[in-house]
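Annotated sample (chain length 89).
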Amino acid sequence: MPIPSDTPIEVADLQLAFLAQKSPKDRLILAAQLADEVFYASRKAIVRVHPGLTSEEIDDLFIELHYGCELANAVRAYRKMRACKLNHD
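Output written by the structure step:
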């Protein structure tokens, strides 16, 4: 497992020992919690940098930044198609 360049080897060793003591279930829970924190921090940063965006625009930019323009454009197109369907029903 690669060690981040900003982490002293002693700290990395402690982190790995801590994780090694955890069950697979606990490691999965930790990974999910970390992912939640990263998503939250990313959305918060988007709002800070672009305070005038709507919730939908924040979602779009989040998808674009994390998953690429192709997926963001597909989500926009789907949302537009869905809105048209709902308006015609």
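Annotation: The CA atoms of residues 47 and 55 lie 9 Å apart.
Annotation: The chain is about 80% helix and 0% strand.
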